[in-house]
Amino acid sequence: MTAEAGSGHIEQNPLQALLLMSCAMLIVPVMDIIAKYLSASLHPLEVTLGRFFFQFLVCLFLALVLARLPKVGGSQPAINYLRGILLACASLCFFIAIKYMSVATAISIFFVEPMILTVLAALILKEKVGPRRIAAVAVGLAGALIILRPNVAEFGLVSLLPVGTAVLFAFYLLLNRLYPVKDDLLTIQLTAGLAGTLFLSTAMVISTSFDIGDVTFVWPNTWQLGLLAVIGLISFATHGLVVAAFQRGNASLLAPLQYLEIVSATLFGYLVFSDFPDGLTWAGISLIVGSGLYITHRERVTRQKA
């Protein structure tokens, strides 16, 4: 799960863009695998808090090393803090989901996000959506239902959390369309880390105090702290790779590579947890990926015509 990146004034280099994006998409699921491993001993809320706290520390350390401490909040404080809170909520939903279901399955369901974004853009931004994209949305959602049906029967409503993640992330991307990012990567990451840390810390205190959702804060041991730090570092690094990729290549070139996450998640999930999607799940994945690629293609064609 990565944030949409803006483009900078850097010379276009499609080969570098492809390599950077591929590296990011192959590394991102490692963060989810570690989060799933930690969720056996720490509540997913605490794991999510650790992710954003250490992401903030990495950004702060880098800013101090570069002697360039950015203005917290950036040029759009309210919007940037809202971005961080949306990402924190999306990450929390996803980390709760993967505690119970395989990472590959959860990521596959999450990829209904382009379909949800298409619907939201039509409803909120009044973007024109033709019958082809509407059909693609329907096919993608059908693929999600194919994956969800056996998982809902096995895990209950928690299986719907990847859909919730997709909805939250779609709102995050919609916010980026309404208020384009005006700050540099370090400022955005620092603000997101701080906003996520404050929001999740408040949720942790309230949940622990009132025993909501069986949340109990556990002091992490040295090994757990190290893994939480790795999650924060991966979050920072992969976001940077995605930004660098989009600065060197256009979105239509790079968008299909996001589905490499499914490949990486399947590989690492099998090696660590012996999880492997069954035939029905792969059928649903195929529908979601196919519809997502078609929506990307139609958006590119629409932009070219405009």
Notes on the structure:
The chain has helices at residues 14-38, 44-65, 77-100, 103-110, 113-124, 131-155, 161-178, 185-210, 222-248, 251-254, 260-273, 279-305. It is mainly α and 306 residues long. The chain has one domain (14-305). α2 packs antiparallel against α8.
- Range of helix content: over 70%
Helix/strand class: mainly alpha
Strand/helix succession: HHHHHHHHHHHH
Mean pLDDT across all amino acids = 88
> Spans of 5+ residues with little confidence (pLDDT < 50)?
none
| Morphology | globular
Task: Tell me the β content.
Answer: under 5%
Number of domains: 1
Tally the helices: 12
- The strand count comes to 0
Largest sheet: none
Report how far apart the termini are. Answer: 30 Å
Q: Could you give a quick summary of the protein structure above?
A:
This protein has one domain (14-305).
Brief descriptors of the model:
306 residues, mainly alpha, 12 helices, 76% helix, globular
List the helices and strands and how they pair.
Elements: H1 14-38, H2 44-65, H3 77-100, H4 103-110, H5 113-124, H6 131-155, H7 161-178, H8 185-210, H9 222-248, H10 251-254, H11 260-273, H12 279-305
